[in-house]
Design brief:
Elements: H1 10-33, H2 39-60, H3 72-92, H4 98-105, H5 108-119, H6 127-143, H7 153-178, H8 186-207, H9 218-245, H10 248-251, H11 257-270, H12 276-293
Helix pairs in contact: 1-9, 1-11, 2-8, 2-9, 3-7, 3-8, 4-7, 5-7, 6-12, 8-9
Pfam family, one: EamA
Family: Belongs to the EamA transporter family.
Subcellular location: Membrane
């Protein structure tokens, strides 16, 4: 019997937790390599490597790249949104700090909820589900409360860039779900985004004045392999399969877990401190996700 995909089932929840934990660890992987490879260039290298992997995979699976399925324009739009998101994230971090960026970037689920309500039939949130999203976002505010100081003019510029990145992130999800991309093989959806970003991100790195690769140490190579093979290839394909299969307005709140997993990974691998605020935030995010996805 075909499973009910109008709500998030246990299988999807388990996959989402794995994805968010992987993306949180990815933040640590970027930090680990940033002294030798600047962040936008890292993202470009990741996209180039994952593009090659996806081409090989689709060849093995005998999936056509040239099939006329009406997705080319939508795929290019998603690729541009995907690229703009990462450029704004890393450019914005030059003006604001990482904690503030986490808060503004995690407004993305609200963009997804609004876009789903406007453009996707039968996807809307009830009042209790909206309360759940607000509660989950409040958890992010609790976890990163120390960054909620009055910003200077430079920080405001960075904050605006991160909010722009959140809009592009959310818009990418909505475009995929609301367009013909929702009906094609998830690998092809990812290939559009990886291929476009593989061209744009290295150019953006040069435009932003990032230095070239300084060294390829075992740590840097391990970081790039993790970012390319696991994050950009396996987890992104899984994410796009989830977008195609389940309501995006119910998937999006799970991404609130990503920065919290990032803090936990930083504590585990980099010796950073875990505070009572983080534990409270995890409880709030978990409660918010429950409210959004309760039957």
């Amino acid at each position: 019997m075909k499973p009910d995909t109008s709500t998030i089932d246990i299988r999807a929840m388990a996959l989402l937790i794995i994805l968010c934990a992987s993306w949180g660890l990815n933040q640590v992987a970027i930090k680990a390599a940033v002294a030798d490879i600047p962040p936008v260039l890292q993202a470009g290298i990741r996209s180039m490597g994952a593009t090659c992997l996806m081409l090989v995979w689709m060849t093995i699976k005998k999936k056509s790249l040239l099939e006329k399925d009406g997705t080319l324009l939508w795929g290019l739009i998603c690729g541009l949104l995907f690229s703009a998101e990462f450029v704004l994230i890393y450019w914005g971090l030059e003006f604001t700090n990482a904690s503030r960026s986490t808060i503004f970037l995690n407004t993305s689920p609200f963009v997804v909820a609004l876009g789903a309500h406007l453009f996707i039939r039968a996807e809307y949130l009830s009042r209790i589900q909206i309360i759940g999203m607000v509660l989950a976002f409040a958890g992010i505010l609790v976890a990163f409360h120390e960054s909620l100081n009055l910003p200077d003019s430079g920080m405001i510029k960075g904050d605006i860039m991160l909010m722009g990145a959140a809009v592009f992130w959310g818009a990418t999800t909505v475009v995929i779900k609301a367009s013909p991309l929702a009906k094609v093989y998830p690998g092809k959806v990812l290939l559009y985004q990886l291929g476009v970003s593989a061209v744009i991100l290295p150019v953006a790195s040069i435009f932003l004045g990032e230095p070239p690769v300084q060294a390829l140490t075992p740590l840097v190579i391990s970081s790039l392999i993790y970012q390319t093979v696991w994050v950009a290839f396996f987890t992104y394909v899984t994410w796009f399969w989830l977008i195609r299969t389940y309501p995006v307005s119910r998937l999006a709140p799970f991404t609130f877990l990503t920065p919290l997993f990032g803090v936990l990974a930083g504590s585990w691998l980099l010796g950073e401190t875990v505070t009572i605020y983080l534990l409270c935030a995890l409880a709030m995010v978990g409660a918010g996700i429950y409210l959004v996805n309760r039957r």
